[in-house]
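Entry 12.
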Amino acid sequence: MTLFLINEWKKRPGGPQDPSAFLMGLDSTRFSTREKEIIIEQLDDWDVIMSTWFEIADFLPSIERLYENTTFSQRHRAALLASKVSYCLGDDRGALHLALSANDLFQLTPRPPSKTVGNQDEQYVNKMIEIGLDTYKGNRSRGEKSDPRLEALIERIFQINIQRNELRFVIGLALETRRVDMIEAAIKSSTDSTGLLAETVQRVLESQLDTGLRNQVLDMLLQMFSKMDKPDFVAICQCLIRLEKPSDVALIIHRLLGTGGDGELMAYQIAFDLYENATQQFINSINRELGDDGQHDGQQPSTAEGGSRPTTPVKNGSPAKEEGSSPDATPSTPAERPATPVKEAKPLTPKSRIRLILSGQETIRLHMQFLIKNNHTDMLILKEMKDSVRTATAHNATLIANGFMHFGTTCDDFLRDNLEWIGKATNWNKFNAVATLGLIHKGHEVNSMKLLEAYLPKTEVDQFGFKEGGALYALGLIHANHGNPTVIKYLRDQLQNAQVSPVRHGACLGLGLAAMGTRDQEVYRQLRDTLYLDDAVTGEAAAVSMGLVMAGDHNDTVFQEMVQYAQETQHDKIQRGIRTGLAILACGGADTAEPWIEQLLDVKSNAVLRQSGVCMLALAYSGTGNANVVRKLLAKVAADPNNDVKRWAVIAIGFVLSKEPDQCVSYTSMLVEHFNGHVRYGAALALGIACAATANREAIALIEPLLSAKENFVRQGAVMALALIQIQHTEATSPKIAELRKTFTKMASERGEDSMTRFGAMVSQGIMDAGGRNVTVSLQNRNGYPDLAGVIGMFVSMQYWYWHSFTLCMSLAFKPSCVIGLNSKLEMPIIEIKSNAKASTFAYPPPIEPKKKEEREKVETAILSITKKKGLLVGKKDAPKKEKEPEKMEVDGDDKPKAELAKEGDGKAEKKKLEPEAPTHMIQNPGRVVKQQLKTLATAEGARYNPLKPFSMGGIILLRDSRPDDKEEIVATVAAGGIPSSTGSSSAPEVPMPASFEIKLDQY
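Predicted 3D structure (tokens):
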């Protein structure tokens, strides 16, 4: 009877309403148990619940009592009904608790949609799963034990998705819930376990996992790799780098070298990847594990082959002319240098080649060859910049721009051609002028001492020491992140013997760069002792270099020493140097650095220490995209009263979101309109850092209004940010690039422009054309992981706000945009790589047109009436002489009128324009390939050489020779400084048209 009544009630017009009559029977003894079961079963229907839940809610206690009654057969159904009503009430936690009590009746597969209420059950199930997962994740992260029923639910979620083959979802969920066992289960159940395993490694390395969990997962993945027949050694080595297991990497290399053939090539490829991804300390450990094979490294110089032309001495801080030579003469010519490498008496063994690659000599040599061969610097830009210089700041900016433009090209033509102008540099400008040689000759390590010999400290040091200090800084820039014991010892000796602040300043910076990441305790102690001299200029450089040497070490003793001295010293420069050093110390630390960060952020009385905490957040979480860190930084922007803290907090957002440019645009979109100029400046640079080389249109649109900001420093930040975003882009990839270049030129040359803005515009032109237009700016390596040197270099360069010399450190973030193919002998064979894009899409920007001299307008001379009358009389007398006009001279080839010739020329030009550009083009080895172009690369059909990894990865790639018995054609090498900067055909000054003339025969 009860069932009949309920069914009739459901059929009422307008749907079921007011179930009180049935629900009151749940507590009544007059209703049998079976009748209560029927009521619960029939009410568990979304068509009923959605129209009556607010009335059923009054009887929730009665329904829950039925669940608690262990003798009631439909107790789990009662729990499910109560859960659904609680869900309608908005009590999600209570609904989840009751859903878990329903056991198997709570189905993860939703019921079919109803005609009346639609997919209401699907929404309910998804919400319960969401709340359940959030609860489970929280418990796992805190190390708390979860409800067994919740664990059973999570287990069911995993199993259902494995059965559905949603394995990537399972792995992602397992990482979030810290279930390493489920990652293993998902990979084992895959039909392509090798591919999924490599993909999982990539995912783990890029994720925001804490160090403990990451290491646990990587250990498990390594065990799975070791059980495979053909393991992915590249992925394995990436795991081992993060786990800091150099001995295991050395074993893999030994194993591959023993197999020969492709195994040997793979060992070389791994060695190149190790140099790009691992720290100096890690690589040194691998070298020790590999042992000595009887051959000395360094048989092959880590520069372009052949000799190098020494840089001319400095006269008053500038390169001076050599005696008996013209300004344009060079000490040596390319003809004097061998065009190909000198053959070695004893060929290198595979292990020697591995050691050579790990030392970085091969990578540096190949990158130098690429940069020298492809140098396309437009010298006219530098000439126009030089001609507009009227202040010391602009002079300094021009030299820095030249250093950036010729980064790694070894071409110092601009310095040689403008010796007198460079001689105007004084004091710290002289320091920077010499230091820029370190950018130009970056990587030219074997001859670095010879190149800088004219400037390095002698027995009798200049009384001021700016030139000598700049030379030591340049030496560090040449060897940045790749210092050898000889150079480090030389810099330590110079620091020990230095008597004046500029020399100590340069020696500290050079030593920090050369010993970067080595964590050498002796070097650290010497720098610390220099810091304790309490000299402002020296102390700033010493503090920064302490951080560089101990980069990413997370050493608590170092942290405490630096913080203590920051509180004791009275010098602002030293405090700022310590701020930079502390941030570098925490680089890549993430959660490991949290205790330090919290300690510094809570210092109310010292703004510099709060800035240090903010900067540590930037570098510790660089590239992680951690939303909690971004929120913490935004809170500092809103709450901290100090403008420097605000500015650094906004800049830090750019570092944290450096892998997620769109997120950075979203977070900073409101900050670029902030009333505080420091916040707007920081927002511009944050966008520049996060969106570097992306040509992100939203970011450009946000920054462009800042070019007309009232604050000069905001305009400066805006131009530098735009240069970072637009580097290596063309009009095909970024339509506003031509207009932007004109804006930079205008801001750099206008007389009324502020000196700070002009400095930014000039340096920005250097950034845009860096490395002969062959390098990009990136804070990640090719695999997408944060690059220690790039992150640190960009961060230190941001200190230019206080000290222009730090701008040069941006070069550490420069990455050659190249694809270089190598054979088994580490030589570059002549090959062509196919690019499935038009050549113009990623071409070099055209050279700028030289300014034409504007002809002055002729002003009509006022003619007096009496003069006019005299002219008429003279005209009447000479009239008979002009009756017959002289015949025009006939000129050979002048058969057609000029108008007709012009028309014909236009027709040819138009025809040329109409010819369609080929949709593909070929790139020669070594080739310039910008980041956006990588995805278009493919192996040419019928190619002799096949890459060991896809060309789309970029960088140095080993090639497998399909015809090893055939003779190889090898790319000819060029000597350092052998190819001058490209001036372009249109950059040369045009020959002026000859002046019109007339032969007057009556004069003869």
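Annotation: Residues 244-294 form one domain. The first strand starts at residue 314 and ends at 315.
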